[in-house]
Each structure stands twice: as structure tokens, then as C-alpha cells.
Please model this.
Amino acid sequence: MPNTPLLSVRQLSCEREDRLLFTHLAFDLQAGDILQIKGPNGSGKTSLLRILAGLLPYAEGELYWQGEALHPGEPSFLSQLLFIGHAPGIKAELTPIENLLWYQDMHQGADQHAVIQALTRIGLGQFLDVPAYSLSAGQQRRIALARIYLSAHTLWILDEPFTAIDVQGVADLEQCIQAHAAQGGSVILTSHHALDTLAGLKVLTLGQAMEEVPHA
Amino acid sequence: MHKTNTTSLAQAVGVCIRREFLLLVRRPSDLLNPLLFFALVSLLFPLGISPTEAILQPVASGVVWVAALLATLLSLDSLFRQDLLDGSLEQLLLTPHPLSVLVMAKVGVHWLMTAIPLILMAPVLGAMLYLPTQAQGVLMLALLLGTPVLILVGAIGAALTVSLRKTGVLLTLMVLPLYIPVLIFGTSAVHAAAQDLPADGQLAFLGAILSLTLVLAPLGISAALKVSVRQ
Model:
């Protein structure tokens, strides 16, 4: 019996500033899938992720979440979605603990102990109580990424999660992503890294049509 | 499969209030600037016009109100700007909780931290401008009813203009016409009290405007924020 896909995209087109980024995009995301969106800069990777999260209107097409039509801002969808965008949403005046606790209490909740554990795991154990403005770009990004260690969301949408993260950090995150998929969760991410270590990785390349036409 | 246990709305509002409070406390210039502006404008009037009672007393209520209005407006431009830039605004949209409620927590804290000191300071400036003692209570009450309206209406404008690179005078032009009823009823309440006349009518109007704004503004602010983020 075929399973209902977690997320279905049908005939999706996106237009930005009178420029068509992609048309008639269609794919299914099953539970346990890891989908990497590839493509050159400006091919609409971030736009696609924002459309899926309901943060961007789309020109035409249909989205389905667990078989039902998905409308932006639906609480039942949002309660299962973890989205980490370009801007990580970290307040410079707040400490990593305060930043992460806010996120957790807006979603599934977590006690301070679990939050400290997640921050230690992502390598911020020595910076728990310093304001985020004194941390580096990579460390600030790690605060937001620490959410995935606490997350019980079904779908993770991660926009360039590995930007400014060091090699060891990337390996740890890949492991966490893999574990999430093994538990039946799904991940959609964009990255310019080669994610060869991830088992069962699916790849969707945007902007291919443009590349295939050599100087037409 | 994963179980999804979402936190309660009360808990979410609680942490939003705590977060806004911490942010304002750790960024004290956002709090002090409007307050300083309020005091300076009122202080310059006696110096610029005349320090005599005969001239200052009739304009006292107007001066305090205009200064309070402009000080509030000054603090609004940055209300959502930082949240949009650092990505917390889109995260606020992506919580399973209604944005209109979460945003009220933010605006509420903003009012509490900027307007309450302003209201407490108003009688001092009033006294300096020879505002009669019996009008001081009405001045504070009128500001207590009026400033939430100024902030809520201003927040709609701030939410609409947040994604523009430079808002400049746009926010002021949009919002100022809507401030005029508050200014008229606010000053005339204080004026009436200064002449030993009842000010109940004007205060009731301010209360009515506040009730209307309290109901409609959350919807307006959240709709405007969604438009600003989703583009």
C-alpha cells in the first residue's frame, strides 16, 4: 500500500521581480527522506524553502501536507515544522540559553537542563551566559542550529545550515540529520557542501534548464 | 513517528513578554531616548516662548500632549526593524501560536516600558508649565488612555513599513492623521480640568477609542507583519 507522502509539491512556479525562477516543479517527500536542494546562486533555493514554510507567496501550484492542501500559517503544519533560515533569529543582547529557551517555549518547550545540554553538544558549553553579540558568526548560527537537537518536529527545513560552521560541526549536524530521518522525520536543506555521507539523500537541482542550454 | 506537544499559548506569551523585557532592559537607549525627547521638548517651550504663567498655562496641556505624541512616534520606527533583520520576525510567524496575540505581548511590553515612565514624568513637566494642580490627575489619566492608542496605531504603521529600506517620513505621514483624534480629546480633557470643568466626556471618548484600537489593532499589526515578511 503506498504511503501518503509527507509533503507533495505539484506544478509549483515561483516568480520574483518579474523573473521566473522555476516552473512546474513537482516532488514528493516521504517520511524519512532527506532532500537536498541544489542549484546556482539565484536559482530559487531559498525561495522554494520559504514557499514551503509559507513565508513566500507562489505564482501557481499546489502544496499538500500529509495528503491535505496546505495553506500558509496553518497551526497544525507549523507545530510540526522546524525552519532555520538565512537569518538565524538570534538576539544579540540575549545569551545563548535565553535565545534557545525562547525558541523552545514557542514550540514544544524544554527545560533549562535540556537546553544547556543541547548547547554543550553543539560546542557552546563555555559560552552559555555571555551575550550573543560577543560570539562569532559561526557560534551565533550554532545557537539556532542547537534547536535541531531538541526538536520533535516532523519536518525540518534548513536553509544553508552549514554556513560558517567548521568541519567537525558539519559532521555532527549531518549525524543528527541522519538520525532524524531514521526516526521517520524528513529534512529539506540547501547546501553547497557535498553531503555524500548522508544515506538515502535525494537531490533536487534547480536552474538546470538554464544550464542545459549552452549560450542559446 | 514524532509526537507533537506544543506549548500552551499562555506559556508562549509569557516567554515573549520576558524576552521583550530583557531586550529593552539591555538596550536602555531605546527607553531613554523618547523620554529624553519628551522632557527636552517641554523644557524648551518656556525658554523659547516666555516663562510667564499667563502665556504658558493656556498651552501647557497642548505642549505636554504634543511632546508625548512625538516621543511615542519616535520610538516606533525601530519597533519591528531589528526583528525583521535578524530573522526573529519570520520565526514568530512560524510558531503554531496566533501572531496577533504574540505581537500584543511585544507591543504591550513596549508600552509598559516607554509610556509608563512618560506618564509618570508628565505632571512634573505640567507643573513646570503652570498646569493647575487639579488638572494633573486628568493629564495622567488621559495619557494612560491615549498612549496605548498611539503605540497600537503606530505599530500598524511600523509593521507596514518595516520591510522598506528607508521609511523616512512615511511612517509619520501614515500614522499622524490617526493620532489627531487622540490629541484633540486628550488636550481638551486636560484643558477642561484646568478650568474646573468636568472632563468625563473627553476621557470617555479616549476610552472608547482605546477599546476600539485594542480590538482591531492586533489583527491589523499581524496582517501587516505577514505582508511585510511574505515578499
Observations:
- The CA atoms of residues 14 and 108 of chain B lie 12 Å apart.
- Residues 9-229 of chain B form one domain.
- Chain B has one domain: 9-229.
- Chain B has a mean pLDDT of 92.
